[in-house]
Structures are given as C-alpha cells and as structure tokens.
Amino acid sequence: MNPRFAFIAAPLLVLAYGVIRILDGLDGSRGPGIAWTTGHLAFIGALVLFVPIFWRLRQMAGGKALATMSAVAGTAGIVALLAQFGIDIVIGFMAADHDAMGPLFDQVQAVPGVQLAIYDAGPYLFYVAQLALVIHAAFRKEVKAWTPVLVLIDLMLPLIDKDLIPVGAVFLLVSFWPLARREAPAARHALVHA
Question: Which residues cross the membrane (predicted)?
Fold first, then answer.
C-alpha cells in the first residue's frame, strides 16, 4: 500500500467517524442504525491504514528494537480496536434500539479477558505507540519537532470530549501531511524504476 495514501486517508477517515458520531447523537442516543455502522466502518478503515503508517514510522524511527516494539504494540492495539469496533457493529445489527444495546455489551464484556484486552488496556497500545513512534522519529529529525505535539493534541482531545474527535483528526491530518508529501517523491521514483 502506498504510505502517502495512508498518511492522508487515515486522518480523513477518523474525521468522518467523528462527524458521523456527532450526527448519530443528535437524537439523544447513538446507535443502532446506518450512522452507527457507517461511522464504525470509517474508523475501521482508518485503523487498517494505521498498520502501514506504524511500520513506515518504525523505519523513520530507525527500525531498531524500541521502534519495532512500538510498531508491534501499536499493531496489537489496532487488533484490539478492530475487535471492539467489530463488536459494536455486530451489536448494532442485533439490537432493536439503543436501550437493547446495553445488555448485549454487558454479555460480551462479561467474557473473561474481553474487558481488559478489548476495552481497558488493548486499545491504549495503539495510542501510546503512535505517540512513541512520532517522538522517536522527531528525535531522529525524520519528522518536524511539532509533529509529536500535534499527534498528542489529537490523542488528548477525545479524552476531554469525544465530540472533539473531528478537531483532533484535523490536527492529525496536519501532522501527517508533510509525511505524505515526503512519500510522494519516493513513490514516483519507484514507478520510474519499475
């Protein structure tokens, strides 16, 4: 996959998820329905694109043990989030209305290990690894010094209020834009010599 595409498309899909999530909540509840499913699919698309992003950031961070451990941890976090969002979609299809979703979530989260792996700990690997990789790349001067600051803002805004996800996605897009532009000459060079 072209890393340039991933660096642009992933933040845009997070932005789409955030906007759809806000729209889904305008009636006072989120899910189930088309907005619930579409928003979750947008975020799943972003997560899939973060796999090549993490491994490209690993290269920018020098590809040594710390960068590799961060990329592996980030990929594990992606798997946990994919499971979480997959569960959300399935429950959205199973539930007749928003109130019926709660007991279904309770059943899933009651399965031993699920709460910890898919909800409480696993997803944080994605966020911590993302920040670790851009900090490491910044120390190697592979990305601008402000890139980790923008990524941190993106990661912190949803903790303040999940309705700030679209704003955070814009910060992420701004932080990834130079990386996408940087990948463009490499992609063109590969095409010329293919």
Answer: 34-55, 67-96
